[in-house]
Every structure is written in C-alpha cells, then in structure tokens.
C-alpha cells in the first residue's frame, strides 16, 4: 500500500522557522519517524514537499493512481488554493489534512480551509504528532496493523 505524504510551502523550514509555534523537529526528522512506524508493514511512504502550488498538483496527479491515501499539510495553501482543493477532489483519494498548529486558534484568515471538506478528516494542533495520528488512522483503517 502506498501513502502520499505532501507538505506545502515553508514546511521545509521546520525546526528553524518559528520553533515556538512549529516545534524544533525538522521535516526530515518527522519523515524518519513515520518511516520507522511503518517498518515491517506492507506500506510505502512517498514524501514530497514544495513551495509551489503547481508542483504539488503535478505530483498528486502523477502519483495518485496506485496510492491508497493522501496525508497533506498544505501550509498556507490551506487557506488560499481552490486549485489544490479541486485537484484533491478529482483524485478521489482518501485524504487526511494535517496541521502542526491549531489553525482555529490562530489568525482569522487561517480558520478557513479549502481542503477540509474534501478530506476524510483533519488533525490540527498536535505539533509533529499530528502526522503520527494521521498515520495511525491510515494503518488502522487499511488493516496493516502490526
């Protein structure tokens, strides 16, 4: 089973960018933790990060066919990208929207997500552990538990 894990703009700066909000773990460290959690399971994780909306959409369209789930932290595209929303909707791929911070407890413009209504669920506000919670859901619902 293949799972796409996509991260949007500025998430490549995790561990450096506003650690008081986003934590001290780098994106690479989060990815390594996810790889560790699927070791010994028949699960392939395919990671992608881009600061460019079109590159994310191209990646999704290229890789969705043989994938079982999409886990996505769209970053700022959460609140701005109808194009990304439409791409996810068109894929018909079960999607989990993930955020490090609680977007509902932040600035007013961050409270609106264009991705939530095309996702099976949203995990927000648990720092890097939001990714673990999403992966746990995927494992449990795919029957790939240990």
Description of the molecule:
The protein has 146 residues and is α/β, with parallel strands linked by helices. It has helices spanning 19-22, 27-38, 53-63, 82-91, 129-142, and strands at residues 2-7, 44-49, 69-73, 95-99, 121-124. It has one domain (2-109, 116-142): Dehydroquinase, class II (Rossmann fold, 3-Layer(aba) Sandwich), CATH 3.40.50. Strands 2-1-3-4-5 form a 5-stranded parallel β-sheet, sandwiched between helices.
Query: In percent, how helical is the residue content?
Result: 25-40%
- The SSE string, one letter per element, is EHHEHEHEEH
The stretches of 5 or more residues where confidence is low (pLDDT under 50) are: none
| Helix/strand/pairing category | alpha/beta
CATH class: Alpha Beta
For the secondary structure, the number of strands is 5
CATH architecture: 3-Layer(aba) Sandwich
CATH level-4 homologous superfamily: Dehydroquinase, class II
List keywords for this structure.
5 helices; about 150 residues; about 35% helix; five-stranded parallel sheet; alpha/beta; single chain; globular; Rossmann fold
Blueprint of the fold:
Layout: E1 2-7, H1 19-22, H2 27-38, E2 44-49, H3 53-63, E3 69-73, H4 82-91, E4 95-99, E5 121-124, H5 129-142
Parallel strand pairs: 1-2, 1-3, 3-4, 4-5
Helix pairs in contact: 2-5, 3-4
Summary?
It contains 5 helices and 5 strands. With 146 residues, the protein is α/β, with parallel strands linked by helices. Helix 2 packs parallel to helix 5 and helix 3 (53-63) packs parallel to helix 4 (82-91).
């Amino acid at each position: 089973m293949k799972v796409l894990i996509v991260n949007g703009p500025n998430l490549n700066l995790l561990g450096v960018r506003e650690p008081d909000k986003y934590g001290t773990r780098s994106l690479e460290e989060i990815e390594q933790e996810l790889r560790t959690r699927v070791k010994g399971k028949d699960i392939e994780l395919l990671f992608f990060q881009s600061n460019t909306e079109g590159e994310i959409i191209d990646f999704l369209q290229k890789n969705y066919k043989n994938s079982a789930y999409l886990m996505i932290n769209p970053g700022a595209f959460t609140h701005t990208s109808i194009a990304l929303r439409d791409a996810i909707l068109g894929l018909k791929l079960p999607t989990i929207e993930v955020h490090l911070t609680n977007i509902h407890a932040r600035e007013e413009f961050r409270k609106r997500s264009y991705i939530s209504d095309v996702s099976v669920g949203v995990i927000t506000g648990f720092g890097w552990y939001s990714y673990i919670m999403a992966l746990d859901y995927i494992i449990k619902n795919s029957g790939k538990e240990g």
